Amino acid sequence: MTSPQVPEPIWLTTNQQLAEACQGWMNEGFLALDTEFVRTSTFYPQAGLLQVADSQHCYLIDPLSVTEWQPLAQVFQAVAVTKVFHACAEDLEVCRQLTGVLPSPLADSQLAASMAGLGGSMGFQRLIAALLDIDIDKEETRSNWLARPLSQDQIRYAVADVYFLRQIYPMLVAKLVSMDRMSWLEEDCQRTIEEQSQQEVPKDYYRRVKLAWKLRPQEQHLLQELVGWRELQARERDVPRSKVVDDNSLWNIARYKPKNRDQLVKAGLRPEMVRKDAQVLMEIVSQAMADDDALWPVALDRPLTPEAGQWLKLTRDAVASRAAVLEIPPEILTRKKALDALIRSGWNSGTYVLPDVLQGWRKSQIGDTLLDMMTKADDRH
């Protein structure tokens, strides 16, 4: 396995330099992109670097000095230019934070590798080793990307990410085309963009709190109000959610409805949180408990019954079996959440409906099989 040699990058540190580069990028078939950021004590990612590789050069964009991002936003929205990332979720957030838009059309090399049968959730280093027989250094991943000047090791690391991504993307496309799976990648990447584009509702985050389903309907309403307040505070203060109030404390507040500071401490709030937010939290508790039940959310689903749980296992086995035939990871075919939704859709009514994620290319590969399984299962319970 060889050690990598990467080209010297072109730095883009002014608005004019970026605008000129963007003009050229509008003529590219695809761009390899990556971002480096710091997110240890903030709600929003702090961009430290954007990397771009086109057909000729590698570029490093300095977000600490560039202030005009509209030219890059236009590139991100150019339908003729595919934007290629590896494991893109956090990169998309950084891109939107800077430019106000999401890169589209999008291609994710990690997803492409999985669909091509190269392995599930492959890290970039392992994928480059598999396709190019090159060992790249990842030691700079967690370094301080807001520092200036960046070290030579940081620069080489940043360039390597897009330089080699640019090389492997055509290889992955060729594999997917030969397997008649390129449409799979396009569909899933488009779904990623659509999901990321959906307007987030702060109060909906209560669904993510572990064991929220155990709370009574009125308590779920209180949790919803607490989580909505926490979400807005985290964004306003630009701190991680847990730095406002952690999930466990919010669950305890919703369950035990504290009426004073001592009870808030017992619920799990740290002293500094009590000093800062005790009054507003108790007001939220008081108001939510007085709200009319028409304001309560639809109660969260309880875990599947043991009998339904058996069908969850059977459908998961079917997914695993089909994934083995396709030589892809089972989680690419579908995840537990979709199987749960399928089972719930008709467990009581007998009319099962495929969730959206099991439509598209998945419908013929596994969706129809699962739907048939559950329709027949209805005769057995």
Topology of helices and strands:
Layout: E1 10-12, H1 15-25, E2 30-38, E3 46-53, E4 58-61, H2 70-76, E5 82-85, H3 89-99, E6 106-108, H4 109-115, H5 124-132, H6 152-178, H7 182-197, H8 217-237, H9 241-244, H10 247-256, H11 261-267, H12 271-290, H13 306-326, H14 330-333, H15 336-346, H16 361-377
Parallel strand pairs: 1-4, 2-5, 5-6
Antiparallel strand pairs: 2-3, 3-4
Helix pairs in contact: 1-2, 4-6, 5-6, 8-10, 8-12, 13-15, 13-16
Describe this structure in words.
It is a single chain. By secondary structure, the protein is of the alpha/beta class. The chain has helices at residues 15-25, 70-76, 89-99, 109-115, 124-132, 152-178, 182-197, 217-237, 241-244, 247-256, 261-267, 271-290, 306-326, 330-333, 336-346, 361-377, and strands spanning 10-12, 30-38, 46-53, 58-61, 82-85, 106-108. The chain is built from 16 helices and six strands. Strands 1-4-3-2-5-6 form a six-stranded mixed beta sheet, with helices on both faces. Helix 8 (217-237) runs antiparallel to helix 10.
